Request: fold
Amino acid sequence: MTGSDFERIRTLIYERAGIVLSEHKKEMVYSRLAKRLRHHGLQRFSDYIARLERQPQAREWEAFTNALTTNLTAFFREAHHFPLLADHVRERRGPVRVWCAAASSGEEPYSIAMTLVEALGARASEAQVIATDINTDTLDSAREGIYPLERLERIDPERLRRFFQKGRGARQGFARVRPEIAAMIRFEPLNLLAEKWPIDGPFDAIFCRNVMIYFDTTTQARILERFAPLLKADGLLFAGHSENFSYITQSFRLRGQTVYVRAAGAHAAPAGRRPEGPFGRVAEEGWVS
Reply:
């Protein structure tokens, strides 16, 4: 991969997904995209890039984007956010809706759904989590809701018993999120740079954590301005631990540690789709409570 190849890749992923690749990412880019070259039987990065440029609608763009996105996540990561979410929704009237804008492999939206169950009790049957991500590979994994037991080691034992099923037989060593929790979540592919988003507001909260760090300030501001009208008047926006939106937009004001509230004057969108799916399904063979 020549320097010119790397610069073309940086331009393509910025135009396609808004991701800014720094110079020190060259080895990472080489490692991840070399697999795509081998898949297509290509020897030179320039040939692979040229193929992408010639076919702007090709499915390979999805694989290209998936390869260059980072998916670091965990259950109840940045744990201080979840009690704040619980307090925010506990006394609310009507169905609660939360958007997780970077679902990755599912740990975050499932953590949100579990928090809603704990906070809302029986009313959680009306709650819905919209979980989106640009990486279609991780979304497929998220929909399955199956994780190695070591990924669950930091979860409270009571939550493990309440929200997961342990695998047996061929599924030994894995756990699955209970179907009634999975039924609360709708997974959708979404590129935050897309002209239209396939979701409707308003939401009680939006989680967009550790995503903006991959965008430049202009892109961050544009996305934040699009978030604001999708939130209810007092809706919360949860950011990552290293993200600060205070100087980027006037549509949000800081409420607490990496938590923002929609500012006055930012108009909400009309009510969107109601929650779909039953709250509770019969467990499938291979999983035990």
The radius of gyration is 20 Å.
